[in-house]
Amino acid sequence: MDDSSTRPRSSRSTGSARLTDVARVAGVAPMTVSRALNRPELVSETTRLRVQRAVLETGYVPNRVAGALASSRSRLVALLVPTVAHSLFAEVVQTVMGVLAPQGYQVLLGLTGYTPEQEETILETVLSRRPDGIVLTGCRHSTLTRQRLQSASVPLVEIWDMSDDPLDMLVGFSHEAVGRAVAEHLLARGYRRFGLISADDSRARFRVAGFVAGLEDAGEGEYQLREVGTPSSMPWGRDKSAELLDSHSLDAIVCSSDILALGVLAEAQSRDLSVPGQLAIMGFGDSSYAAASFPALSTVRIDGAAIGLRAAEHLLQRMAQPTFERAARTLDVGFEIVDRDTT
């Protein structure tokens, strides 16, 4: 007679090994194994390691679907970013995963691109998986996305932006403030005739708006704007800077990303322009190659690791609460202008 009907509910797994087998090998109670796998923060580090070794020895694979139905917890956190091609977003992803994984959470990564339509589609799929928490890039969403997020009783951290009206928790910085600070910095350096090369996504456009507002507040400086698509590329930076330099007398070009700025640097060098003597160049993001370029690229540093860390910590605190309640909590991590050789 098949004894599967007599197995305890706690023994669910997707392989031949059962939870009771893990408990026997680890020398602990089945409930302790369950806690170590699903709520590791509730057991000691010694116990957690013993259970992990027993899991490896027995080959036990928990049935996460059955466990989620029983506990109303999926142990799944959705992380939605535009791209992982940019090192800053990759840094956020790596940090969030590094914080959540030891606590028993798996991260479902979604790439939203730079369009509200793609964000809507991915969010619909994500919500159907009933995640325990969501980390979402930006705080400017479509009406449908906002409605879905407001209706879902799921802790949410918006990142990489700033708003007076976050949907739940927000960890980021003001793109408009970045633009203003860059304008003030370059004006103080004596630059007055600017070319702006910007991606056409909303956050880059807010930095442009802040830069223009900074010029207007100072009552000096003029600018010419060129936009490119997303994700940005070095060839676009070179092509658009060539357009600007062919038709305007400029003493500085400001870019919405470091990769665009490298394209500008390449074009300047092809024309034998002295940088920064004849043309200053400013990027954004402080990518790993910015300091290694020649001359070293001036840029704006964003601490992606800090954003990922704070977002993950906020989520863990909220997911540990027995009931759901929106926090309306905001953390501005700020930014830093890195003045190197190109300005």
TrEMBL record:
InterPro entries linked: HTH_LacI, LacI/GalR-like_sensor, Lambda_DNA-bd_dom_sf, Peripla_BP_I
Keyword DNA-binding annotated: yes
Molecular function terms, GO-annotated: DNA-binding transcription factor activity; transcription cis-regulatory region binding
Domain of life: Bacteria
UniProt keyword terms in alphabetical order: DNA-binding, Transcription, Transcription regulation
Ranges where the HTH lacI-type domain occurs: 17-71
PANTHER family, per database record: LACI-RELATED TRANSCRIPTIONAL REPRESSOR, TRANSCRIPTIONAL REGULATOR
Stated name of the protein: LacI family DNA-binding transcriptional regulator
Originating organism: Salinicola corii
